[in-house]
Amino acid sequence: MANPKLRTKHNYDAFEVVSALQKCIRRGLEEDALYWAYELAESPNKNYYSWLWARLKVIACEDVGPANPIMPLLIDVLWRNWKEKKEERLWYTNAVVALVRSPKSRIVDNALNMLLSEDKLGWRRDKPIPYEEYEPIPLGSADESKLENPAPPKDFTTKIPWFAMDMHTPAGKQYGLGKKDFYENGAVLVNKALDDPYEERAKAGDLGLEKQRENENRSK
Predict the structure, then answer these.
(1) Is 192 helix (H, G, I), strand (E, B) or coil?
(2) Tell me, which fold does domain 1-124+163-220 have in CATH?
(3) What is the 3-state secondary structure (H, E, C) of 123-176?
(4) Which pTM does this prediction carry?
């Protein structure tokens, strides 16, 4: 039975709505992304508004990153504006449109996943710092300086998109989806702006770690 505390305005699973929002932003599906942001923001549970902003902040780093370095600043400013006037919907709408249209890169998330997975798998490369090569920095040297609701179009759909049902959602877990599906479908970016030197290593590490966990579970 669905948890009523985790349902959105039109009775979607909140986790799936968050996933759909991020995946649609990644794929450049602007109207869809706006739909899911509105669905979350207008839910009876007002905590979802904070959840919406938290996710938009994550997207600014996870899916945009250095491809548009000022994006985290923009999202933070819009979030602060919302905190001052929470009934205003312009702020999150602006944020979603900006994120959809921005150049994108997953280099930051892949770099972090690479480091985490390689460390857990014992693939970490030790890189000691040769302290003797550095001059000591003198202390003090640092720089101080009311319309009726119209019927929707016949082709209108409000289903959660298939690519949002990944390992991060209850449905994705139920179907046993894992990291391979995430990299092939969930992490797809439109308007990808930078070459990512960490993507393949992040993928290899995540898949290796997932396989290791599966083997450990089988041996229990």
Answers:
(1) strand
(2) Zinc Finger, Delta Prime; domain 3 (1.20.272)
(3) CCCCCCCCHHHCCCCCCCCCCCCCCCCCCCCCCCCCCCCHHHCCCCCHHHHHCC
(4) 0.70
Instruction: Domain ranges for the chain, please list them.
Output: 1-124+163-220
**Cβ-Cβ contacts under 8 Å for 15 (sequence gap 6 or more):** 6, 168, 169, 170
184-215 pLDDT, tens digit each: 888 888 888 888 888 888 888 988 988 888 88
pLDDT in tens, 39-61: 999 988 878 888 999 999 999 99
The position carrying tokens 């979607």 is 12
- Give the least confident one: 38-52, 65-79, 137-151: 137-151
CA distance 164 to 179: 13
186 and 203 in contact (C-beta within 8 Å)? no
